[in-house]
Description:
The protein has 40 helices and 46 strands. The longest helix is centred in the C-terminal third of the chain and has 30 residues, at 1183-1212. The protein is of the alpha+beta class and 1268 residues long. Strands 7, 8, 9, 10, 11, 12, 13, 14, 15, 16, 17, 18 and 22 form a 13-stranded mixed β-sheet that branches. It has a 7-stranded mixed β-sheet with strand order 28-36-33-34-32-35-29, with helices on one face. Strands 20-19-21-25-24-23 form a 6-stranded mixed β-sheet, sandwiched between helices. Helices cover 36% and strands 20% of the residues. The termini are far apart. Helix 36 (1136-1155) packs antiparallel against helix 38 (1183-1212).
Amino acid sequence: MASRRSWQAGGRASTPQTPQTPTTPIPQGDVVRNVAAGRSLEDKYQLAVSNVPRQVDFTTIRLAFEKVLRPRQGPNQYRPIHFTLQLDPPDPKRQNDKNRGTGVIYLNDERFAKSLAARVNEYPIKIGDYEILFQKQDGSLSRALQTPYRRPAISREALQRKKKNQEALGHEVRVLAVQFGVEGRDRRSFCVEWEGDYNPHAANTLNLVQSQENKPNAYLKFNEGREGENPRSLQIEISGHSQPDVYRITIPMEQIRDLENGWVDGVPFIMMRLSHAPSFETKPQFATLTGDPKKDFKGSWQRLSSLEPAHERVVGFASRGLRLVITSDKTHLDNFIKMSLFVRLPRLEISSHADIARGDQFSRRRLDEVLNMTLNFPWAIRFQCDALLRNCLLLPREILELKGEIGRLVSIGTRFAEEVLKHFVKLVAHVYKNRETVLDCLRRAETECNDQGVSFAEYTPKLGKIPSRRVLVTPTSYQLSGPEDEQSNRVIRLFGPDFEECFIRVAFGDEGGALYRLDWEVDNSKFLAKRVGTILNEGLQIAGRHFDFLAYSGSGLRQHSMWFVSPFKHPTFGEVNAHTIRVGLGNFSKVINCPARYGARISQAFSSTDPSVELKPEQIEVIDDVKAETRLQYGDTEELKPRELVWTDGHGTISTDLADEIWSKLCEIRPKRSKYREETEEEVRPKAYQIRLGGYKGVVSVDYRLKGRLIQLRPSMDKFDAPHSLGIEISEAFNRPGPVYLNRPLIMLLDTLGVKHSAFVKLQDDAIETAQGALSHPDSSAALMDLYDLGKAFGLPILLRQLAKYGLQDLHSRDPFFRKLLSSSLYHVKRELKYHARIPGKQLHSTLDWIVWLTRVFLVPGSWMVVGVADVHDVVEDGEIFACIHEQGKPPKYLEGPILICRSPTVHPGDVQLVNAIGKPKPGSPYDIENLANTVVFSVKGKRPLPSCLGGGDLDGDVYYLITNPDLYPTKYEIPAAYEPAERHTLDRDSTIKDIVDFVIEYMTHDTLGLIGVNHLRLADQRPEGVLDKDCLRYAQLYSDAVDYPKTGKPVKIDGMPKPTDIPDWYCPESADPNNGDYYESIRALGVLFRAIQLGDPDPGPTEQPVNQEDFIRGALQEKVFGILSNSGVPYPGPNFFHQLFARFSFKLKYQCATYSLAQSANSRLNEEEVIVGTILGKTTAANESRKRGILIERLKEQSENLVKEIKGKIVGDHTLTPEEQLARSWTCLDVAWEVARENKFGKNSFSLVALTSVLDALQKIDTTERD
């Protein structure tokens, strides 16, 4: 019988520890006689044991081992294997545990180990749901001794379930007509805008397509897809002998919001309301086949924007209402009903459609009428009107009917009208549910804006921010959103706030906003060349204004997001368009023959930055790089090739005076950065900045020897010539260390290099214990939220710490809303650990961070993430680093001794290295005078720069992990990778913008970075040598090339690479069952960690002895507040302003809840708890949705922070007010919050939270003043 069982690879190669005494006596009999034979346990052959159930007694565990290893009956090949088992004692903190889940099994010699391997391959040792795992103590299991992994063991139940699925979903439903259209507001009528008639005898359907002989057939079927790769879907295939091509409509099941069934003249129909348009595909019906499935079916389908020219006219406006007329044969409808129940589609309701009509809602004439109606409006208003149309919210005739009302709003003020319409865009989606007319809804939006009591007549630009409007281009439509504040860049700031609306962000994505993914069956290349290429080359029309492709930022390219500009006339710069802007950036002659590199250099000017200070030419010096020629061995070759290496790649220096001036400027732009000045006498100022200065980019660190306003740059920082741009733009200020999070690639790498599973398990256990302990005390909750970057926009961690001080600690456990916040936080942490192996908690520093962010797992205490700089004082020796960690409110900490150092991503086994930190510098030495806090200083000596050994790092902004936990130190280290510079795609002429466009399209089609990373990880999970496997090493090389693809223009092809055949359980998406037979139980550390977490429910359930928040806070604070205000004679302000402020807060909160929902459909909204915590609890169905959710969460946090900052500023009033006056305003606002809570208005809980934090902040200021 073939071996099916895998052994755990990559055990830690360390000296075996002395076995700990088990909790129960060692069993007697044969097991003891092995010890009595004169050999101590230390002399015997040892295997580490893991995944042992912790709450099971030793006797039960021993019997389970004996049942497999010492069976009482069986053939000769199953003769007894004598063993001694010892388990590690339990963690004292875990009262119910009887062991630690790990231990050691002792065997006589290696022959018995091989016998054990064969035995457990066929008969795993299982105790309940736990399968015992084994690994050698030296971490070097040979290929002969182990199999890479156990293929999915399809149990009888799983086989029966699969067979049942196939039988249940194996039916086809004959479709007579496919009708796309729009419903009436009362949902009693359906207007067909396009119909395909697929039955020559369909006399009872609306035949909008001219009748013809030999019409094609159409069938609806269910496609299970493959979990984690292709989502389950409904597919309608259309084919016939009279047409050369087959067409397919694919509807992912999660996009079906409502499902209805009805009859018209005895013919049944199925009505579907979709959150997004379906996808349309085609392939030749009579293609020549070779007999090789890989060649015949790979990319056999081509993506389309529409099914035919008549469909193209309406597809962007009428694709979310789908009506299928099916055969009157009752069997087909019955089969559909059974299949829909089986896959848990929305409940099939009875349709209320009484009127089916031919449509002409989106004729060219009607669309032109809408455009002409808005031409006299300011463009900001036209944009909102276009959003109503393109986002499928209103019909053209409905927009035309609002002309008078919109004109009246514009007469009040453009800014006011824009805010009303922006609010209306979110409200109108719920007109049917609210049973109101469109006009009533618009007037309600105006009323809610008026209730805010804040004039929008004038817009005050925010320093460092721009109001960004966005267009999402999907295969079928344009989706418009905004404006929303986001960080600005050098180019847009140059032209001033009056021309900001001439710039828009245009993103290209699939329906729903997810990035286009590589699909084995569907080829997107021709489709993208047409859909995306046409827009990039010819521009696009938005609200009657033409926009042209301008450029992209580095991170924007990864997200398929570009900047477009509409030509305008500037009072200083004259006629401005995309070409003049690019020409004005500088001289790109150094890279002009490489389109990708040319585009990358232009993108440098579009990076999100903060302005700081302007310099004079004499305040900028260019100094030499530290570089030397060395010889490196590339890949598998033994030949050493010469190569010049740069030790200061991307690093310059700056004077102390200039660094402090920059920080002061940043604190003006972002006051949050200067908050420490109010709390302590001394703040931790940045000693390094990531900058853009003209055509230079990189990191500058403080050099105390430089005097005055001086910056020193190096040739390695020079990317293009822009001598007239003298402003320093700040990408990042490194004033604090970041936390270190292990991620999936790093865990897999350390697992292969000998780190024990128990080290990872302990970290995860600690993370879960910390998260669960957060429910017990406010301080623990605050620590959890600080650790995982939750609730910070609403000041929740600070508020929780203040509760006990003012006698409010019971709110934490007895207020139902607070319990929901904490439960949502706990669910977020556990979900990120289990399904995505990450705990968010840091800002994204590079374009690769999104990929690594999707794989982070848990925090490593006592470790830090800091930016790398060069040793300009020539103090640090080869193999050494200097690092000083200085956190606010703590003394500086100088790292000393062995330190594990790496950077993300870690793909090659040599990407982690052990270095020596030199510790506290001697008095009077350079790093005693200036400790460069929160950086890691690398030596400029040796044969090779250390950053280049760590995944090809450099010093232009890369951040490095400094890990001080010895349990995570490998037992062996590999030689760092050395790859030859990737070949560039160059031209024999100067590149043009057309060449950049061609590269962008090719990049969107062939970007394989994510796929390479996933294949590398899954292959390492299945191969005995883990990441040391030769194919994994080849993937590491390809990964390096794919990272450089945006700069080289050379796509990385993986067609000839081996691909993982099966899916490990840790790669299971959130919506799937890892035990359904599609996944195998990974025995690597990732699998053990995945299975150890049980999610539970985000709803905390009923609260025991709940308190009324208003009564409780009044009882604890009212007397103190009244006493302070009475003694100071400060009057209470009236409540009217704060009622208006609540209205403003409420409608902005509604906007966020609707905008950042994962589903982003009209009926999908976030709840208050999600917004406050800063998470999205909705489940994802595929990896590309995880990335989408991460982007939405980051935007949600940013917008929430802006909203809370604005509202708190209005609550406390002008900064000249005394703390007592601020307290009076805050208490009145809290009174208003309780009043609206009694009326159960939306936003009541979050608004009371903001008001309560304002009250406690004011009390703290008063207490501090009294102490002083």
